[in-house]
Specification:
By secondary structure, the protein is an alpha/beta fold. The protein contains 9 helices and 8 strands. The protein has a single domain, classed as NAD(P)-binding Rossmann-like Domain (Rossmann fold), CATH 3.40.50. The termini are far apart.
Length: about 240
């Protein structure tokens, strides 16, 4: 495939970049601090990776990973992502993002809010329900027994197909969770969120960021999505 743009160099964006480079996919990384701040990471990743501005990452290929805090979304010019398939990893965390009235009221999902700002882009919710350190741990070649699956959601079927093809190449199966309005099924506290990928589901909250993961096959992800109950986001404090 063509070059993958990645806007956001935090733990999720960096983990995806590592998988892309390992799969032979060139990446252009960008963040809010400028290309020079990514020199060490790009050097570590090797020649398939380069640093650029947000505009350069957005225009590098047809697919772009957007992995920034919810509060940073409005700072990204919508026009640079127009026509692109955008993999949105965004979650809503009030302790970091402040309170967002529409999300607290449950009238929209996080990705519907992001899609509204990025009018003209084809948004696909992905990689938001798995811990960053589990991404490289659980990636496997296609047709590997017990390959892990990730849910995706989006309103454009073509974009979801393109996102699924990329995610397959990065090392995961996918499960279609429906439109963006259903993406709450794999957001924080929902049944298909991060804890299901823990090797030990009883791991205490204060240890999950270091705890090993275990592959969750597509059938299990599908079942988790089906039994999910919508979380009262207004009560969320983390």
């Amino acid at each position: 495939m063509s070059t993958l743009g990645i806007i956001g160099s935090g733990s999720i964006g960096t983990a995806i970049a590592r998988l892309a480079v390992a799969a032979g996919i060139p990446v252009v990384l960008a963040n809010s601090r400028g290309p020079e701040s990514l020199a060490d990471l790009v050097s570590e990743l090797g020649p398939p990776a380069s640093a650029g501005t947000r505009e350069q990452a957005a225009q590098a290929g047809e697919l772009v990973v957007l992995s920034v805090p919810l509060t940073a979304i409005e700072a990204i010019p919508a026009e640079i992502l127009r026509g692109r398939t955008v993999l949105d990893t965004t979650n809503y965390y009030p302790f970091r993002d402040g309170r967002v009235a529409e999300l607290d009221a449950g009238t929209v999902t996080t990705s519907e809010l992001v899609q509204r700002h990025l009018a003209g882009a084809h948004l696909v919710k992905a990689f938001n329900n798995i811990l960053a350190h589990h991404i490289p741990q659980l990636a496997r070649p296609a047709d590997t027994p017990e390959r892990a699956a990730l849910p995706i959601a989006g309103d454009d079927e073509g974009a979801k197909k393109a996102a699924a093809a990329l995610i397959d190449r990065l090392g995961f199966d996918t499960v279609d969770a429906g439109p963006l309005s259903e993406s709450w099924r794999f957001e924080p506290e929902a049944a298909a969120y991060t804890r299901m990928y823990l090797a030990d589901p009883a791991t205490p909250d204060d240890r999950i960021l270091q705890a090993p993961g275990a592959p969750v096959p597509a059938a299990q992800v599908r079942a988790a999505l089906a039994r999910a109950e919508r979380v009262r986001v207004a009560d969320r404090t983390f």
